[in-house]
Automatic annotation (TrEMBL):
<dbReference type="InterPro" id="IPR012334">
    <property type="entry name" value="Pectin_lyas_fold"/>
</dbReference>
<feature type="signal peptide">
    <location>
        <begin position="1"/>
        <end position="22"/>
    </location>
</feature>
<dbReference type="InterPro" id="IPR011050">
    <property type="entry name" value="Pectin_lyase_fold/virulence"/>
</dbReference>
<keyword id="KW-0732">Signal</keyword>
<dbReference type="InterPro" id="IPR026444">
    <property type="entry name" value="Secre_tail"/>
</dbReference>
<protein>
    <recommendedName>
        <fullName>Secretion system C-terminal sorting domain-containing protein</fullName>
    </recommendedName>
</protein>
Length: 661
């Protein structure tokens, strides 16, 4: 095993609007036009709204603070365009403990958009719609919500987001963290059956519902829940709590829950708990649950040992379960650790793995009793059905949360032979992940104990495992490299490539420690690895998130081997003024410039060519104490030597870098 360390600060710290521009007082009433960064902060002192025929545009870098103790609201009847950038996001918040009532879209234009916005401290409490949606409320409205952070909000229904009355927002690449509600700690979709709500590639993490749906609550709504990390959520504090990760109650509306990682969710109750990963109820076959990894969810914390369905609990509904890996979940007594099929539920399951769940893989219960029609599945202990097996799936590393299987796994090429073939034109595998046989080599990359979630205010580290397996009989020269993709789509390399010789039938594991400094910017990132041989390149990737700490007590978001926890440790880091060498150097076309500040300072970081002409001003404004980084893009410049110059208060320093094309 080879091990390297990679130290990164993925940060594009935004300007402090309270210092850059003069505050602008916003009085209650109708508003339109443009709010600019030079006018920021915008201090709202009454309920505001956008008329149905009007548009308000909020530019990058704007801070909007709702003041007074009146729990003010922002209602959109027309069009709101609030589009920040990764380096200059928009902030919505409140300066009082009473919070604000969030952004409320009511019959609003579908052109409304929130992008690179942070929404925090939204609080709603009241009867019916007065208690819906802590940060965002959608009534017959379908805004776009992209690359946002919604945290520390609360409501009766939908702690972060509530949608109903045929709303169909698209929620993508957004972090929804530490929100709470009675129903739907993160998101609640209610009676949105005419149009489709897309919930795509988000981190829905560490939210809490008092009753049901710690992460997502879906009632009679057409939703596409695809590619999300739904982890560390909790349904708690009610005699019968349901759905730690996802709760759905569907009639005849078609919905898809696919390609998600649903892990480490929990249901807790003094009486009974149901469905730590997913709770499903309904009277139709309209729900498809496919290609999900559902693991380490816990329904066992019931005072009376009434914990049902650690992975999935189904009550009188007939979903189709396709190619899921439901592994190492927990219930108690004799109830289904993997799946509980209850009271007339008749699911059909195919090409799936149930392994390591406790106390059973599948339990049938209720009167009339639920059933399970399983075919071409690997079920520990066995299950009657065509093509089913009872064999160790041979996962790569259960202890580190890596549930893709080895090359000689009995689950490979063992799925339903009539199913659509895998992308590599081989028979379908069992489970959520297929073994790509396109090349002689296969690459997997994953962090220890996923998902990988970092905090913005402390230095974080996690080991990353690169595994390369050569299934052929020939020896190959393999070059492994890595890069990361920022939330705005830009990429840059991580460390240096590693080249080694890999004999036929062998595997090499490379472990690298990935460290991120305090001050990294929030968002959803991609970690991408490549393994190149003469015949081609194998690629693998995973998502990770950087979130802000809890504002109430500066708790740091951390994770141990089995669960999330919040520690009260504060970072003990002292800084001096410094400008570091850019990396990589030479570069083409992206490189990262890093500097640190002993005190909050007015900073200017500028790049010059060898003749002394300014080619880019990278930073101009106030920055807080700590480590900062900014990416320089030389795509439009010729090859050559460039000088970067930092001025921070009385401190000045320069460095040289080489662009090679």
């Amino acid at each position: 095993m080879m091990k390297r360390s990679i130290f990164l600060t993925l940060v594009f710290t935004f300007l402090s609007a309270s210092i850059l521009g003069a505050d602008t007082i916003i009085y209650g009433g109708a508003h339109s036009g443009t709010w600019t960064e030079t006018g920021s902060r915008y201090l709202v002192q009454g309920d505001i709204w956008i008329e149905s025929n009007a548009t308000l545009t909020i530019e990058p870098g704007v801070t909007v603070i709702f003041q007074t103790t009146d729990n003010l609201e922002f209602t959109v009847y027309g069009t709101l365009i609030a589009e920040g950038s990764f380096s200059n996001p928009i902030l919505f918040g409140a300066d009082e403990d009473e919070g604000w009532r969030g952004i409320r879209f009511e019959d609003a234009s579908s052109s409304s958009s929130l992008k690179f916005c942070r929404l925090t401290n939204g609080i709603v409490d009241g009867a019916y719609e007065e208690g819906y949606g802590g940060a965002i409320y959608c009534e017959n409205s379908s805004p776009s919500i992209d690359n946002c952070l919604i945290s520390d909000c609360q409501a009766n229904w939908g702690g972060a987001i509530y949608t109903w009355d045929d709303s169909a927002p698209e929620i993508t690449r957004t972090i929804i963290a530490r929100n709470s509600a009675d129903y739907g700690g993160g998101i609640r979709c209610n009676s949105c059956d005419a149009n489709e709500t897309d919930i795509l590639e988000n981190f829905v993490i560490i939210n809490e519902a008092a009753v049901s749906g710690g992460g997502i609550y879906q009632y009679d709504s057409a939703t596409q829940i695809i590619g999300n990390i739904i982890s560390g959520n909790l349904a708690n504090d009610y005699p019968n709590t349901k759905g730690g990760g996802i709760y759905f109650n569907i009639g005849d509306t078609e919905s898809l829950i696919s390609k998600n990682i649903i892990s480490k969710n929990e249901v807790i109750s003094s009486l009974a708990t149901y469905g730590a990963g997913i709770y499903g109820k309904g009277d139709d076959e309209a729900v498809e649950i496919s290609y999900n990894l559902i693991y380490d969810n816990d329904a066992s914390d019931s005072a009376l040992n009434n914990g049902y369905g650690g992975g999935i609990y189904l009550h009188n509904c007939d979903p189709t379960l396709i190619s899921n890996s439901i592994v190492y979940n927990t219930a108690n007594f004799t109830h289904g650790g993997g799946i509980e099929s209850y009271y007339g539920a008749h699911p059909e399951m195919i090409n799936s793995i149930l392994w390591g769940n406790s106390p059973t893989q599948i339990t049938l219960s209720g009167n009339p009793q639920g059933t399970m029609d399983a075919t071409y599945c690997d079920i520990q202990g066995g299950w009657t059905g065509t093509g089913n097996i009872n064999s160790d799936p041979e996962f790569l590393d259960v202890s580190e949360g890596e549930f893709r299987f080895e090359y000689d796994s009995p689950c490979q090429d063992s799925g339903d032979p009539t199913s659509t073939y895998e992308p590599d034109n081989t028979r379908i595998d069992m489970g959520a992940y297929y073994y790509d046989q396109t090349l002689d080599i296969r690459l997997t990359v994953s962090p220890d104990h996923p998902p990988m979630i970092f905090s913005t205010d402390v230095q974080n580290s996690r080991d990353i495992n690169f595994r390369v397996y050569n299934k052929s009989q020939s020896t190959h020269s393999v070059t492994v490299s890595a890069k990361y993709r920022l939330p705005d789509g830009r990429t840059t390399t991580v460390g240096q490539p590693t080249t080694f010789s890999l004999a036929g039938g062998s595997m090499n594991t490379i472990e690298r420690t990935f460290t991120m400094a305090s001050g990294s910017s929030w968002g959803i990132y991609s970690f991408i690895a490549e393994a190149e041989i003469t015949a081609g390149t194998a690629i693998d990737s995973f998502l990770f998130a950087i979130v802000t700490p809890d504002p109430d007590d500066s708790r740091v978001l951390s994770m141990d081997e089995s669960q999330y926890f919040l520690s009260n440790q504060s970072p003990t880091v002292s800084y001096v003024f410094a400008l570091h060498q850019n990396t990589p150097n030479p570069f083409n076309p992206l490189t990262v410039l890093s500097y640190q500040l002993q005190n909050a300072s007015l900073v200017n970081l500028t790049v010059y060519d060898i003749s002394g002409r300014e080619v880019a001003e990278l930073v101009s404004g106030w920055r807080d104490v700590g480590v900062h980084e900014v990416t320089f893009d030389g795509s439009a410049l010729p090859s050559g030597l460039y000088v970067y110059h930092l001025k921070a208060g009385d401190f000045t320093a320069s460095g040289k870098m080489v662009l090679v094309k």
